[in-house]
Write a structure and sequence with these properties.
Length: about 160
């Protein structure tokens, strides 16, 4: 008889694939007495199909062609409220056309009264900010698109 733990471990490859494809960053599964907690490293990932209308997109927000265009999405690592500037009276962290560096703060997401800095994980040029200031975002939602700097990309082997 297969234990709960063995069944959960056997399902792990499929769970990892679904986690990566769905844009979900955390998954907590409990089956009987066995539990499994998975967490993807948040940040930059290939863009996914654009969320539906009314989701807080600032502009066009259509990411369907982004992968073909070589763009990368900066994703919200957690659910909360998106802020593009440190304070309402200050300029935004980034705007379309701005050059960004790895580690640079590009936005904030407020969750549970805490402001979480969103850092760029790729150097390049901001193409579009997809979320309007003050709008709610979900974990894994694209916040902006970036055209990576070819000189900053790892060499392919």
């Amino acid at each position: 008889m297969e234990s709960e733990r063995e069944r959960l471990l056997a399902a792990l490859p499929a769970l990892l694939k679904e986690l990566a494809a769905s844009g979900v960053t955390e998954l907590d599964v409990t089956a009987g007495g066995a539990s499994l907690y998975l967490r993807q490293r948040p940040g930059v990932a290939p863009p996914v199909e654009a969320p539906g209308a009314g989701d807080g997109l600032a502009g066009g927000g259509d990411l369907s062609g982004a992968a073909e265009d070589g763009l990368t999405a900066v994703l919200a690592p957690l659910a909360g409220v998106f802020y593009g500037a440190p304070k309402p009276e200050e300029p935004p962290y980034v705007a379309p056309g701005d050059e960004i560096e790895v580690g640079q703060v590009v936005a904030l997401v407020e969750a549970m009264k805490a402001f979480n800095e969103i850092h760029a994980e790729v150097a390049g040029t901001v193409v579009e900010v997809l979320v309007a200031n003050g709008r709610s975002v979900t974990a894994g939602q694209p916040l902006m698109t970036v055209r990576p700097d070819p000189a900053a990309l790892p060499a392919e082997s």
